[in-house]
Structure formats: C-alpha cells, structure tokens
Write a structure and sequence with these properties.
289 residues; alpha/beta; globular
Length: 289
C-alpha cells in the first residue's frame, strides 16, 4: 500500500445511526489507509447534532488517526420545505439557517474549514413563475447574509455543490451568488458524478468556469444515467481531463472520494479498490502541479 493521503465519506457503507456501526466504518477506512473523513451522515435530514455528539465524532477520529476534511450540511428533510434556507416561508428559512449553523459548529469542532451545501434552488418554481432570478434568490441571499458573520468568525467556507438544473440555469445562479459574496466565504464543491449526469459533453463546465472558487470536490463515477457513486475509473467520467483543471484550482489535496459501497461488497476489498483508484487520480493531479 502507498502512503497517499485520501478522503472517504463517512457514509460509504450507508448511514446507520448506531454508534458502533459508524465507528466500525471509520475504523475500516483508517485500516485501509485513508487519512481523512468527510462527514456526510444526516446530510439529507433535519437532524441536529448535540455538542456531545460533535465531541464524540472528533474523539473517534483522533483515536483512529483520522482528520476531518469538511462536513456535508443539510437543506432539511428531503422532499419537504422544512428547515430549508432557500424557502419562501420565512420561518422555514430561518429554521434552515439554524440547521446550517449546526453543521458549521460540527465542522468547527475538529478545525476543518468547509461545509458543502446543496443549493436547494426551486427550479420548478423558476420555470412556472414570471419572477426574476433575483426575486427567486431573495430568500437565499437573506440566509447567506445572515450566515456570513457566523461562518467567517469560525473560519468556515460554504461550498455550493452543483446539483439540479441545466448549465445555463445553474451558471446564472452561481454567477449571482459569487458576485455577491467573496471567496473567503463562498465557494464551489464540484461533484463529478452530478456533472457527468447533467451535462456529459460539457461536464467540466463548472470546474472551469469557477476554477478560482473550487475549494471542495466530490469524486465519484457513473455511466451518465444515475448518480451511482461508483469508484473513480469505474464509470464514464474523464478523470484525465479533470486532473489539470483541479490542479489549477485552489483545492488543497487530499482527493475526496464520495463513492459508495452500494453493492455491499466486502468492505475491506471495496476500500482497497477505492484507495487504489483515489491514489491513481491523486498522482494524475500532482503531475500537473
């Protein structure tokens, strides 16, 4: 085994809420050679972490020799408008900012410097209404205005992840947000799997367009039809083309894998394959730096 530093998401084997399962998954990742964890548990729920749970996660990682490279924040329970910072309902919006602050605290405890956030922009409402982009983004701006001081005093960036919408739609939204907020507060998390599904022929568009804001990545592969969260090089994404783009960005290694052991293979074997693929891509990026 090489000694390449690499990151794996905490939920690579699923999202059990049993503490013994979570710690066991972290231990297996450490044994496989991963140096860092990206905390992804509860990213699709309105779960609020207690400070004692934050300390427990930090202690687990210290015990296992793992560092934490970022936290996946939440826009509330999937499929609802509850605790969504982009909601037009101000009570739901404020509850959503409270939820994000909870994840900022979770990132602050181990002294990591970024949270990743799905934008939660109402694409359907945008298509159905006659409102301008600024009208639709007004709740988002209010939330980000209110969160800015909280994040900056803790040294935490918000990295928006490319998710739904066309390239034109997403770019218009990202342009407006990045024009309003500085790079020491707001950046991009480039998700390779989402990009390959949404715009296969131009899947590096976001990484190139916002290269100076590319502070986080989610590396996973697929075949262009669904978000399979495969190990890099096991789908159709062009990793060779992405390597120089990433190398030119401010992203700081190690490489972050958001691959999932969905087939429930033996964890030891799956983690070794993931580690080897991550090391291969890491070497490709290093070649251009």
């Amino acid at each position: 085994m090489t000694n390449t530093k690499l990151v794996i998401t905490s939920d690579y084997h699923g999202e059990s809420r049993k503490t013994t399962d979570i710690k066991n998954s972290l231990a297996k990742a450490a044994q496989a050679g991963f140096s860092h964890i990206f905390w992804c548990h509860e990213f699709g729920s309105s779960y609020i972490y207690s400070v004692y749970e934050m300390l427990q996660i930090n202690n687990w990682c210290n015990e296992l020799g793992l560092l934490i490279k970022g936290v996946h924040a939440s826009i509330g329970d999937r499929g609802t408008d509850l605790k969504n910072f982009a909601s037009g309902n101000d009570y739901n919006r404020l509850a959503g900012t409270e939820l994000i602050k909870n994840r900022v605290d979770l990132a602050y405890v181990p002294s990591t410097d970024a949270i990743v956030l799905h934008l939660g922009f109402p694409w359907e409402r945008a298509l159905e209404s006659n409102k301008t982009l600024n009208d639709l983004l007004r709740p988002v701006f209010r939330s980000f205005d209110e969160l800015e001081a909280y994040c900056k005093t803790r040294g935490i960036k918000i990295c928006l992840e490319n998710t739904g919408g066309t390239i034109a739609e997403c770019s218009a939204v990202f342009d407006a947000i990045f024009k309003r907020y500085s790079g020491d507060y707001m950046g991009l998390c480039f998700d390779t799997g989402h990009a390959y599904m949404q715009c296969r022929e131009n899947c590096l568009e976001y990484a190139q367009r916002y290269n100076d804001r590319l502070f986080m990545i989610h590396c996973a592969d697929n075949h262009g039809e669904s978000d399979e969260h495969l190990i890099p090089f096991e789908g159709g994404f062009d990793w060779e083309a992405f390597a120089p783009v990433l190398a030119q960005s401010p992203y700081e290694l190690p490489i972050l894998l958001e691959s999932m052991n969905n087939a429930k293979e033996d964890d030891t074997l799956w983690l070794k394959r993931a580690y080897d693929a991550g090391s291969r891509f890491s070497a490709m990026v290093e070649k251009y730096r």
